[in-house]
Amino acid sequence: MKKTLGLLLLSTIILLTGCGIIEETRKTIHYATETTDFINELSAFSVEVQSIMNNGEVNVTSIEEKLLDIENTIAEFNSIEAPAIAEGIHNEILIQNEKLLDTINKIQSGELMIEDLNKTDFTQSIDNITKFMDQIQNLENN
């Protein structure tokens, strides 16, 4: 009787542990997918804004709309919860996101002109975030 109860208890513990591992893996894959989408969106945004800025004739309204869109995208990303395995990467991305939001807020408040966007670390912050892509993709493969 004690052996049977012990085996049942052991089986239950193993099953519950396995479920936890499966759930953590699912969360990690979901996080990696969300983060990859976020990084791809930031990269596309950066290329598009650089193209507009380098055209010579800056369409302020167009850039303001794109900044508002990316501000919302950053806010959405900042609200997701990172799995334990990705906390370091996530925190680094959040630091860069704060720099991006700070620049966007300066533009929205009139403290910084859109024409001066290239003089800020805005695109460097985006580049810093895109450098995490390999690490994020490794999360999906582990």
TrEMBL record:
Domain of life: Bacteria
InterPro entries on file: DUF6376
UniProt-recorded name of the protein: Lipoprotein
Organism: Ornithinibacillus bavariensis
